[in-house]
Amino acid sequence: MTQWVYSFGSGKSDGDAGMKNLLGGKGANLAEMASLGLPVPPGFTITTEVCTYFYSHDKAYPESLMSDAMAALAAIESQVGTRFGDRENPLLLSVRSGARVSMPGMMDTVLNLGLNDVTVQGLAVKSGDERFAWDSYRRFIQMYGDVVLEVPHHDFEEILEQYKRKHNLANDTDISAVGWKGIVADYKDLVLRELGRPFPQDPQEQLWDAIGAVFKSWMTPRAVTYRKIHSIPEDWGTAVNVQAMVFGNMGDDCATGVAFTRDPSNGENYFYGEYLVNAQGEDVVAGIRTPQPLSLAARQKDNSPLPSMEEVMPEVYGQLCDVRARLEAHYKDMQDIEFTVQQGKLYMLQTRTGKRTAAAALRIAVDMVNEKLITPDEAVLRIDASALDQLLHPMLDPNVERDVVGKGLPASPGAASGIAVFTADEAEERAKDGSDVILVRIETSPEDIHGMNAARGILTTRGGMTSHAAVVARGMGRPCVAGAGTIQIDMKRRVMIAGGVEIAEGDVITIDGTKGEVMEGRVPTLQPKLSGDFQTVMGWADAARRMKVRANAETPTDAKVARDFGAEGIGLCRTEHMFFDPHRIQKVREMIFADTEGARRKALNSLLPAQRDDFTELFRIMKGLPVTIRLLDPPLHEFLPHEDADIESFAKAAGLTVDRVHRRLNELKEANPMLGHRGCRLGITYPEIYEMQAVAIFEAALKVDVIPEIMVPLITTKAELSKLRKMVDEVAARIYTTKAGVKLPYIVGTMIELPRAALMAHEIAEEAAFFSFGTNDLTQTTLGMSRDDAGSFLPFYVEKGIFAKDPFVSLDQDGVGQLIDMACVRGREARSDLKLGICGEHGGDPDSIDFCERTGLDYVSCSAFRVPIARLAAAQASLRAKKKSAIKAAA
Amino acid sequence: MTQWVYSFGSGKSDGDAGMKNLLGGKGANLAEMASLGLPVPPGFTITTEVCTYFYSHDKAYPESLMSDAMAALAAIESQVGTRFGDRENPLLLSVRSGARVSMPGMMDTVLNLGLNDVTVQGLAVKSGDERFAWDSYRRFIQMYGDVVLEVPHHDFEEILEQYKRKHNLANDTDISAVGWKGIVADYKDLVLRELGRPFPQDPQEQLWDAIGAVFKSWMTPRAVTYRKIHSIPEDWGTAVNVQAMVFGNMGDDCATGVAFTRDPSNGENYFYGEYLVNAQGEDVVAGIRTPQPLSLAARQKDNSPLPSMEEVMPEVYGQLCDVRARLEAHYKDMQDIEFTVQQGKLYMLQTRTGKRTAAAALRIAVDMVNEKLITPDEAVLRIDASALDQLLHPMLDPNVERDVVGKGLPASPGAASGIAVFTADEAEERAKDGSDVILVRIETSPEDIHGMNAARGILTTRGGMTSHAAVVARGMGRPCVAGAGTIQIDMKRRVMIAGGVEIAEGDVITIDGTKGEVMEGRVPTLQPKLSGDFQTVMGWADAARRMKVRANAETPTDAKVARDFGAEGIGLCRTEHMFFDPHRIQKVREMIFADTEGARRKALNSLLPAQRDDFTELFRIMKGLPVTIRLLDPPLHEFLPHEDADIESFAKAAGLTVDRVHRRLNELKEANPMLGHRGCRLGITYPEIYEMQAVAIFEAALKVDVIPEIMVPLITTKAELSKLRKMVDEVAARIYTTKAGVKLPYIVGTMIELPRAALMAHEIAEEAAFFSFGTNDLTQTTLGMSRDDAGSFLPFYVEKGIFAKDPFVSLDQDGVGQLIDMACVRGREARSDLKLGICGEHGGDPDSIDFCERTGLDYVSCSAFRVPIARLAAAQASLRAKKKSAIKAAA
C-alpha cells in the first residue's frame, strides 16, 4: 500500500531530506531537522503523489488518505498536548505547500487553522491574551477567505482600513481585542455576503478545504508561469505540510525571522538574517515592517538603528547560532532557514539549501573546501553553471561619475540600464518591442513574474533582502535594487520622483544591484573582473573535466575575450561575418553579380587580402591553439541589398541597372532559404569562392603557428566532401609549395547539421578528420522547425509541456540526441581518430554539455561569454560520469 | 591478371550475353551470337574496365592492352584470311562503342578502318570494284576525320556537294571511281589544311586513335545529357568493339538492314524491319534513303511501292527468318537486330533486347506467356513499370473530326498538342516558360535531346520507324510522328507548310503518334481505354503483389480515375485543397483573421457543411475502401491574398481595412514556411480547426460505409498526437452519440515526415494506429533541401553524380530510407498491428516501391494516374523479394 502521509516531530520522522521528490523540499527538510533533534513543531506531510493522484482523478483523493491523515493528526495532538477543535485547549495548524524545488510565494498557505467562534475563546483563555486570540482569528479568516473561499483579499483589507480610519488608528498593533472582535464579525459578514453561506466553523472542513486549496494552487497562472521560466515539470506536483502552529506574535518574548547561514549575496561566512519581534513569519517576507538585524556585528556593519536579536534575546540567539552550526555541518551547504520564537522558545519552521548569487556560490564553495566540509570536486558540482552568467556580464564603469538619484538594498548583483516602466505588463510589452526595460515597482508580487523576467533589472521602493523582488531577481540573475525608500512612485502619472528628479515612464535609468544604487540615464559599463574564487573554482573544474572548451568567435574582440575566459581554441569561425564588413560588401555583391567564373574570380581576388588579414589576426590571438574555420555558409541573397535606396546605390557603384539588380534578387530569392542553396552547395556550384577562402587560410597559416581546421558546412553526402576536400588539398599543396616550400599541418572536416549527414556518418567520416555538430541547424531539420518562425507556437508548446524545454536552448536529447549519438558511433567506427565536437549554441548550455560528455565528444564550443559556464558544466559532466561508472563498477 | 580484351567469332567466344557490364550490350551479344553459331564477323571487345582505367589514369591504357589486342587482331586475320594493312588483301575493321545499355547515336563509330593510299588499291583489285574501294576510302576519311581528327563534318559534305554541283550529279551513287578518287584527294587536302599534317596512313595509328576517340565520346556533352535523362551512371563507361568489316554496299547482291523480331510499336508477332540494297548500315538509320520493307506481308500492309527483301533475296531472307526464330527462342524476348548481306551472304552485326512501346511490351509479354516462352511472373517482371505512363495519358477523341494537315509514321504512340517550335533550344525555352511545345524538325540528332525531352511531342519530316527521333521518343514516352514527308519546313521564316496551310512558330498543332497524323490547332483528348493485354498483365501483377496500392486524391474526378485504375482506397486526401475552392476561400480567410476562438469557430462552422459534403462524396466513390484524410497541413498564410487587388477585395468583403489585412499578412509571414507554423502545430494552437474537420469527417462517415483513417500531419513528438487524438476521439464520441447513437469504426494515425518522428517512432506508435510516410517532407528535412529551391543546384548535383538520382523523384534509400526502416521497426515493436504506408510522391516510383516492399510497408499511395504503375511495380518488388528469399533459403 502506498504511504500517502509522512509524520515528523519529537526527534523522529517517517521521512528524511533524501525524499524531496515525494515530500517536497519543505516536508523532507522538516523531517530531517526533526530527526536531528532540532526543535520542529510536529506535523505531517501529504505527499506529492497525492497531488498527482488529485489531478489525474478529477480532484479526488486516494481512499485511505483521510484515515492516515487523522492518525497523523492524533500524533501531533499527543505531542503538543492540545486537541484539534478542542474548545478549551485547541490545536491550531498551519497548512503549507511544498514542491520539490522552492517556488517562493507561488503557492498558498493557511495559518491558524482550527480557529472558530468557540476555539478562539479557548485560545484567549489559554494564551491569556484575548487580543492575540482575536487577531489570530481575523488573520485566519482573512487568509482562509482569500485562499480557500476566494473572497478578494482587498475586501478584507478594506474593512480593516475603514475600522482604522473610523477609530483614527495608525497601525494594526493599535487595534484592541474588542476592535478585532468587531472586525471578525465584519469579516464573517463579508464571507456570508460573498458566498451565501457562513464562514465554516467545522475544523475538519477547514482542514480538508485548505489542503484542497493548496493542491489547486499548483495550477494557478502565476505558478504555471513560474514553472515555465524555471523549467519545472508540471507533473512534479506539490506536497502539503500540516503542522502545529507556533506563534511569533504572542508578545515581546516572541519573534519570527529568516536567516541564511552565510551571506547569500557575496558568500561571506557570517550569520546573515532578519527578524521581527512580536510578528508572524509573513510579516518579514512581505516587507511591510522593516526587519531588524540578527547579530550585533550585522547591525554595526549596516549601521542600523534597530537592535539586533543578539542584543534583544541573547539566549535564543545563542540557540539559533547552535542550530546554524549543526545545520551547516549536517547539510554541508549554506542553509536558508525560518524560525519562530514563541514565549522565549525557539522553533525551526524550515531549512533549505539557500539560493545565492553566483559570486556567493563561488565563495561559499571555496570557503567550504578550505573548511574541509567538502572536496574540490563537490565544490565544482555544487555551483549552478548557468548562474555564472551573472558574473560574466558588464558592470558599471567605476571611473565614470554616477548621478545617483536613489539608494536601496543591493538585492541582486550586476548592473543594467533601460527605460523605466511601472507595470509588469508594460515591461513585457516594451521588451517585446526590443527595448531594455527596468521594472520599477513599490513592491513586487508573484503576479509580476512575467514582467520581471522581461526586464533587464528590477527596482523596488519597499522590502528587504529577502523580499519577493530580491529572491526572484537573484534566481533569475537580474540585477535588483530593493527597498529604495527615498524614491516615490506616482502610478497615476506614471512617474517616479528620485532625488528631486522626476523620471517618466520611458526615461532611461540605470541600477547597480551590487551597490544598491539608482542612476538617471545610461551609465557606461565595463567587463567584470573575475574574483579569485572564480579562478580557484575554474582551476578545480579544469582539473576535473575531460572535454575541451572552445569558443565560437570571428572578431578579434570576441577571440580575445574567449581566450581570456579560458577558451582552448576556436570551434567555429563564421567567415561570412567577415563578408559583411562595409568595405567588402560591395565586392561580395559584385562577385554575386558576376556572369562568369572569370568575373567571379576577379571579385574574389580583390577580397582575398582582407580575408587573409582576418585569419592572420585571429590566428595570432589564438596562437598555438586550434582554429576551426567554417567556409562560407549562408545563401548568397543574404549579402545583397534589399532596400530600394541600397539597391540603387549598389547598382550605381557596380555599373549595373537597377532592373538587373532586381532580376538577380528575384533569381536568388528562396522559398525556404534555410533549406536552400547554401553551405557546401555554394562550394560545389561556385568552387572559386571556397578556393579563395582556402587560399586566405593557408596564406595566413604560413605566418602564424596554428593548426587550421577547415570545416565544410551543410554536408549531405560523402561525395560533396570528397570534392571539396580535394580542392582544399590542392590549394594547400599549391600555397605551401609556391610560397614556402614547406608543408604545414591542417585538417579538413565537416559540420554534421543535417539528419542525413548523421545517418551517413560512416561514409562521411572517410573524408572528414573531424565532425562538429551544428546543433542549431540539426535541431531545425530534425524537428522540421525553423527557429525564426517557431515563435508563433514554440512558447505555447513549452507552456503546455509538449516540449519540456525550448529545443533551441537545451538540446533535444531524445530526438536530435539520437542522431548525434549515431553519428559519433558510426563516425568513430569508420575512423577511430575522428575528432568530435559541437558548435551549435547548445555548446554553452549545461544540460546539453552533460549530454556531450555522455556521448563522448572531444570538445564543446560556445560563445565567448559562455566559455566559463561551459568549462564548469563540462567538469560537472565529467564528475557525474565518473560517479556513474564508479557505481556501475561497484555493482 | 585482368583480361582487358575478349575475342568472338567462328562459333566460340571469350564472353557471353551475361557479361554486359564488362563487355557492353553490343559486345556481350556479339559474343553470345557467335557462340550460338550465328554468322558474326569475327572481332574483339575492349572492356568497359579499360574505359574506367582510361579516365582514372589521365587517358592512358593498361600496360598489357596493346599486346592483347594485337593477339585478338591476329585471330581475326586468321579467321577472315586477310591481313590488317596488307597491300593486296587488306583486313578492314569497324570500331564501335558499346555501353551496358544502348545509348542510340550518342557515341562514335568508325567504319572501313585500315584503308590508306595503298590498301585502297588492294581492296579495288580484290573486290573487283574500283568505285566501291574509293567510295569506301572516302567514307572512312570522312568518318575518321569527323570522329577522330575533329575536322567538321560539313566541310567534307561541302566538298562532296561542290563536286556534285560541278559535275551536275544528283546522287552520291552517280559518282564514278574517278570522281571518288578526286574527292579523296580533296578530303586529304582538307585534313592537311585543318590539322597541319597529312591524313594518317598507318593502320595501327588509325586503329588506336579510333579506339581512343570512342572512349572519349563517352564524355561528349550529348552523351552526358543522355545519361542524365536516363539515369545512367557515369562510371559505367563504354566498351569498344573492333570487328572485321562486312559490306552491304558492294553491289546489288549486298544489303543492310535493321529489324525487330516483333513489331516494337504494338507488339504484334510479325517480323518487322527495313533494309536497303547496296548500302552501309548508317544509311538505314540516318533516314536519308527511304528503306524497303522486309517481308511481302509488311509491304502489302503498308501498301509500299518498294519491293521487300522476301521478294528481292528470298534465300537470305529465309536465313534471316531462321535467325529470328533462334534468337527469340534463345533470349525469350523480342530482339532488335542489325544485319548485312555481303555478296549474298548474311552477317549478324548486332542483337539486343528491342525497345518497345508500353503497349507492345504488354502484348509481347502476354503473347510470350501464351506461347509458353515465359511464365506470367516473368511477364510481370519484364515490363518497365514507368513506361506504362505512356498508356495512361490522354489520347485524341476519335469522335472529333480531325483536320489532318500531314501524315507520317506512327513512331511513338500517344497524342499531344502544343505550339510548334523548330529548334531544340526554343523548345526548351518555351517549355520552361510553361508552354506545351511540339518540336518540329526535318530530322533529329543527338544534339536535339534536351529539346525532345522538353517537348510534349516530336514531329519529323524525314526518317523511319528506327530513325533517331522515333527511337528516342519511344524511350522518353513522348508521342512522335516521323518522316511526315509532305510537310515542308522553312527554317529561315520559321514556318512549316502542311496541307497547304502555313503554320508559324508559336501556332498550336496536334500530333497523334499512334496514327501518325498531324493536325492544325488543338484536338480534344480522351482518357485512354486500356487494352485487354493491360488487364491481363495487371491481373498477373495483382496476383503477385503483397502491398496494397492506394491513391492520393481529394477531388471526385481524381478519386474516380483512381478507382478505375484499381486503387484500393485513398492514402492521402489533402483537405486544404478543399479550402481553396473560390466559394470557400473568403470564409477561410475570415477564420484566419478572427481575433478570438469564438470568431474562428463561427467562420469554421460556416465551412463545415461544404467540408462534410466533400467527404461524403469522396466516401461514396470509395465505398467499402479505406480513406485516409489528412487534417489541415499548410501554413495559414497560403490561404491569404497576396496581390494588391485581391487584398483590397478581400478586405472589403470581410469588412476589414486594407491596413489590417497587411498587418496580418506580415504577422503570418515566415522565413522558412516549410519549417513553420503548419501541420499539427496549427491543430495544437487552433484546435477548433481540426475539430471542425473531425466533425465533418464523422458526420460524412455516418452516411456512407467507409472506415475513415484520420491522419495528423507533421508530428514531432508523441505529446502532439496524444492531444489531437484525444480531441478526435471526443468529437467521434459526441457525433456518434448525438447523431446516431452508434459507434462506427475509425482510426487515427500520423504522417511520419520529420526525422524526429521517425527517431521517436516507438513512442509515437503508442498513439498511432498507422504511419504514413510523407516522403516529400521527410526528404526535405533529412537532406535539408527545399524542393522549391533545389533547382539552383540539384540538377548540377545529379549531373555530377553527387546524387545518383533526384531524391525527390526516387527515394534516397541510403539516407531517408534508414529513417523509414527505423520507424517501421520501432513502430512495429511498440504496436505489432501498426499499419504502414507511404503517401509521398515516391509512392508512384518503381525503385522507391521496391524499397517499400523490402521495408515491409503495407501499402503505397500515389497519384491516380500512377496507380497502375504502382500495382505493377509492387508486383515486381514482391517477385524480386520472393526470388531473393528463395535464393537465401537455398543457400
How do you describe this structure in short?
Two copies of one chain form a homodimer. By secondary structure, chain A is of the alpha/beta class.
Give the averaged pLDDT of chain A, no decimals. 91
What's the helix count of chain A?
A: 35
Oligomer: homodimer
| Main sheet properties of chain A | 8 strands, mixed
Report the largest inter-chain contact.
A-B, 48 and 48 residues
Arrangement of strands in the largest sheet of chain A: 15-25-24-17-18-19-20-16
Percent helix among the residues of chain A? 40-55%
Number of strands of chain A: 34
Rg calc of chain A: 32 Å
Per DSSP, what share of the residues of chain A sits in E-state strands of 2 or more residues?
15-25%
Structural class of chain A: alpha/beta
Uncertain stretches of 5 or more adjacent residues of chain A = none
* Distance between the amino and carboxyl termini of chain A: 29 Å
Structure characterization notes:
By secondary structure, the first copy, chain A, is α/β, with parallel strands linked by helices. Helix content of chain A is 45%, strand content 18%. Chain A contains 35 helices and 34 strands. An 8-stranded mixed sheet of chain A has the order 15-25-24-17-18-19-20-16. In chain A, strands 27-28-29-30-31-32-33-34 form an 8-stranded parallel beta barrel, surrounded by 5 helices. In chain A, a hairpin with a 2-residue loop joins strand 1 and strand 2. Chain A starts with a strand and ends with a helix. The mean pLDDT of chain A is 91. At the A-B interface, helix 26, helix 28, helix 29, helix 31 and helix 33 of A face helix 26, helix 28, helix 29, helix 31 and helix 33 of B.
